[in-house]
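Researcher: Sequence recovery benchmark, item below. Answer with residues only.
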């Protein structure tokens, strides 16, 4: 299973503003990812805003704008399925490389919840839907919060 070894993170998101940026391809799977992210962020007490973009290619630019606009973290959600996507490599590497660059350029966390999989079944299995084995939307939200807290602790330690 792809999530084997993933950590159990305890995060307190109170006082953090998080923007969830979600693509619209493969809407049923996206619903699972979005609900998982929402549930996790609400449970942590973070303040949450959601923005939809057309596809995963558009995630980096909108995540960057959200972080430059003051968000403490973003959670990027998307689904790219190799079987159904003639330009799979282009779309998935544009999203992955772009989001990595956004995190480094802004110095703020990007929770990575873009599923890049071979089949729709694999995507469903990771989407936090009934019967899914993993909940990548929740994991991405949790990672974004934990990283925002780590960055805050580092900054506070410098004073
Ligand atoms: C074009 C395209 C294709 C073929 N497949 C996907 C996909 O599987 N998942 C996804 O999120 N977006 C896809 N897109 C759309 C691009 O991300 C982008 O929205 C368009 O190329 C317009 O810029």
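Model:
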């Amino acid at each position: 299973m792809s999530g084997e070894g993933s950590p159990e993170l305890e995060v307190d998101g109170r006082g953090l503003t998080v923007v969830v940026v979600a693509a619209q391809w493969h809407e049923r799977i996206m619903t699972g990812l979005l609900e998982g992210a929402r549930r996790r962020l609400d449970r942590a007490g973070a303040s949450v805003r959601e923005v939809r973009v057309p596809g995963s290619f558009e995630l980096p630019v909108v995540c960057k704008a959200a972080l430059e606009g003051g968000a403490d973290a973003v959670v990027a959600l998307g689904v790219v399925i190799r079987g159904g996507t003639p330009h799979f490599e282009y779309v998935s590497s544009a999203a992955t490389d772009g989001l990595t660059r956004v995190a480094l350029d802004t110095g703020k966390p990007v929770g990575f919840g873009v599923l890049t999989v071979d089949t729709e079944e694999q995507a469903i299995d990771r989407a936090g839907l009934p019967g899914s084995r993993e909940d990548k939307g929740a994991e991405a939200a949790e990672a974004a919060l934990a990283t925002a807290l780590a960055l805050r602790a580092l900054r506070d330690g410098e004073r």
